[in-house]
Design goal:
Layout (H helix, E strand, L loop, with lengths): L1 H22 L3 H22 L6 H22 L2 H10 L7 H7 L11 H11 L5 H4 L2 E2 L5 E2 L3 E7 L5 E7 L2 H24 L7 H11 L2 H15 L5 E2 L12 E5 L4 E2 L3 H6 L4 H19 L1 E3 L7 E5 L6 E5 L5 E3 L2 H16 L2 H10 L5 H9 L17 H18 L9 H18 L6 H13 L6 H5 L1
Parallel strand pairs: 5-10
Antiparallel strand pairs: 1-3, 2-3, 3-4, 4-6, 7-9, 8-11, 9-10
Helix pairs in contact: 2-3, 2-8, 3-4, 3-5, 4-5, 8-9, 12-17, 12-18, 13-14, 13-18, 14-15, 15-16
């Protein structure tokens, strides 16, 4: 009897595995893989971490955990690639092995076949194939990311365009991935006694918006409107008649990725000037527009010469993930940055208290991404050093536990804003840390205090 039931259970497990893999894009298997990795990580950091006595032993532990989660992200693909890319930007907090593995994920997003692309396109455009809508449509993608891939096409008049096609598994996997994310963060909060779970729903909401290309098209238009008067920045235009929830068609732009430093130099671009444009663009968004790109990684920015000019122009792509700041928060954040740089501890403390934050000095360090010590009567505006990074890593765990007084009061804008700050800092570092990021942000913060805005999304309505 036992053998019979064991056989049935094994058969059922095999059938379920095959069904999940071939018909449900492995949504169950992917989350089992994630939960198992989380259990192993729990054992490593909760029970083994304190036993590591030497730097070599700690390095080996970090190496093991980083490799484990890198493998999970590669095998699960989809939204896990995006998660891993975010981890790669946090090298001011995480140990070096995490950067070593996760920095490779920018080139690890697999593409889907043309047959799959055609199937999605026909569902979105009343049964029409890409070749029936466009004069030409390249079957091979020119880029593949975690959620979508991009194909080059020609309109009927020969105008080149970029057609972004959402991968079919995303819609199926999304609810399961987000449910698993909820569960993992909840468990890690309880086990490690860290205030984490309050961040989950804003992150999930941002991901849900990112898979609706109508929202990305709207974000692109709003960003384009903001930068329209400053020709140093450019947002490609959306072709609305060729855009749907899972297909986005935009103006084609030729340019060089900001991470291709040698290619930039070979083409006569000043890398320091490009880095300056990059930091300025997002400083302006944070403090002057209140509508902020939340995923400004190197693949989302191109450099080119302005048409009919030799002036350098920064082209900003991929507007799926955006933060819309309330006017109250934007003004407070401007005041916070001004106060941090001027060592106005009373104002820093007051703003932090109103946000439910107890450790204002550590919170300021997280915003500046370098240690903040007002008692020393100075703020170092120079580039973040390895000493700064080590100090943040040493202090992070215990101070994060004490950081929040009331998570319900914390502005949810800080979550995606923190993501932007991390990536911009990482980009600047990758380009040689040539820009005084803190000084520039403080400049635009001071300017933003006197600016009164309406929410751009309200204006759209």
């Amino acid at each position: 009897m036992v053998r019979s039931w064991t056989g049935r259970a094994c058969t059922a497990a095999i059938v379920w595995h095959q069904y999940d893999t071939h018909f449900k894009h492995a949504r169950f298997n992917r989350n089992v893989r994630s939960i198992w990795a989380a259990v192993e990580t729990l054992v490593d950091y909760k029970f083994l971490f304190s036993r590591q006595r030497t730097a070599e032993e700690l390095e080996a532990l970090h190496e093991r955990v980083a490799k484990r989660w890198y493998d999970v992200c590669c095998k699960n693909a989809g939204l896990y690639i995006k998660l891993g890319q975010q981890i790669a930007t946090m090298n001011h907090i995480l140990p070096p092995p995490y950067l070593k593995y996760f920095s490779e994920l920018h080139d690890q997003a697999p593409s889907v076949s043309y047959e799959v692309v055609e199937g999605i396109f026909r569902k979105e455009f009343n049964g029409k194939k890409p070749q029936e809508v466009f004069l030409e449509f390249d079957k091979e993608p020119i880029a593949s990311a975690s959620i979508a891939q991009v194909h080059r096409a020609l309109l009927s008049d020969g105008t080149p365009v970029a057609v972004k096609i959402q991968k079919p598994e995303i819609a199926v996997q999304l609810p399961w991935d987000l449910a698993c994310f909820h569960l993992l963060v909840f468990c890690f909060e309880k086990i490690f006694d860290l205030p984490m779970y309050w961040t989950v729903e804003p992150v999930c909401q941002a991901v849900r918006q990112e898979v609706d290309f109508h929202i990305e098209a709207r974000n692109s238009k709003l960003a384009r409107d903001f930068f329209e008067e400053d020709k140093r920045f450019y947002i490609p235009s959306v072709l609305w008649e060729y855009t749907s929830r899972r297909v986005l068609t935009m103006e084609w732009i030729d340019g060089i990725k900001i991470s291709k430093l040698s290619t930039l130099r070979e083409n006569g671009f000043d890398v320091a000037a490009v880095a300056h444009l990059m930091v300025e663009a997002f400083s302006r968004q944070i403090f002057l527009s209140g509508f902020v790109h939340a995923d400004p990684h190197p693949g989302n920015m191109l450099v080119r010469r302005r048409p009919n000019s030799r002036e350098t122009q920064l082209v900003i792509l991929d507007h799926g993930s955006y933060l819309s700041e309330s006017e109250k928060f934007r003004k407070q954040y401007c005041e916070l940055w001004k106060a941090m740089v001027l060592l106005d501890t009373a104002t820093v403390d007051s703003i932090c208290k109103s946000w439910g934050i107890k450790d204002s000095n550590f919170f300021a360090s997280l915003q500046l991404l370098k240690p903040y010590n007002p008692e020393k009567h100075s703020v170092h505006l120079n580039a973040t050093t390895m000493e700064d990074i080590v100090k943040l890593q040493v202090e992070a765990y215990e101070r994060v536990k004490r950081l929040l007084g009331d998570s319900q009061q914390v502005p949810r804008e800080l979550i995606l804003l923190g993501r932007n700050l991390n990536i911009v800092r990482s980009n600047n570092k990758g380009m040689g840390s040539s820009v005084n990021r803190i000084n520039m942000m403080a400049h635009f913060a001071a300017e933003g205090i006197s600016v009164d805005l309406e929410n751009p999304l309200d204006a759209e309505l």
